[in-house]
Amino acid sequence: MPQFDLNFTWGGGAPLDQHPARRALPSVGRLLVVLGTIAAFLCAVAPRFAQAQSKDKLAVARDKMVSIYLAQEGIKNPRVLDVMRQVPRHLFVPQAQRSGAYFDQALPIGHKQTISPPYIVAYMTEMLDPQRFWRDWSKKSTRLKS
């Protein structure tokens, strides 16, 4: 095992290699401490990494939906296409229907109602001709005065 010159000191002023805990641990023990630290770090980071991967998978599904069902079928407004790439459509349908959320089909949402297919939503939105200067209601919660 290679030897390292450690010129650091610990709280008592003695060199780090003379720290009581370091002298008490044999090299195998130090290896186990390092591995345990790495394992604890990975356990803390892994759930976040898994969430990021699942979000990426859904982003890929949304991109495919936009390119196959919307852009190829004639939706041209870049704002509409961009928004359709961002909206998490799977969150608007029951858990049992989520696997079909990014296909061009209506899905039941309960009470004998359906969510419209993505093409219909994009087409209706494109017909509204959304403008860049329209107010973004999601940024400020206000009530309409009656």
Describe the protein in words:
This protein has 146 residues and is mainly alpha-helical. The chain has a domain at 28-128: Vaccinia Virus protein VP39 (Rossmann fold, 3-Layer(aba) Sandwich), CATH 3.40.50.150. Helix content is 48%, strand content 5%. A two-stranded antiparallel ribbon has the order 1-2. Helix 2 (27-71) packs across helix 3 (78-86) and helix 2 (27-71) crosses helix 4.
Summarize the structure.
With 146 residues, the chain is mainly α. It has a domain of 101 residues: Rossmann fold, CATH 3.40.50.150. It contains 4 helices and 2 strands; from the N terminus they run αααββα.
Named CATH architecture of the domain at 28-128 = 3-Layer(aba) Sandwich
What share of residues are in beta strands?
under 5%
Summed up, the helix count is 4
The global form is elongated
Q: Report the C-alpha radius of gyration, rounded.
A: 28 Å
Q: State the end-to-end CA separation.
A: 79 Å
The CATH H-level homologous superfamily of the domain at 28-128 = Vaccinia Virus protein VP39
Specify the CATH class of the domain at 28-128.
Alpha Beta
Mean pLDDT: 75
Helix content: 40-55%
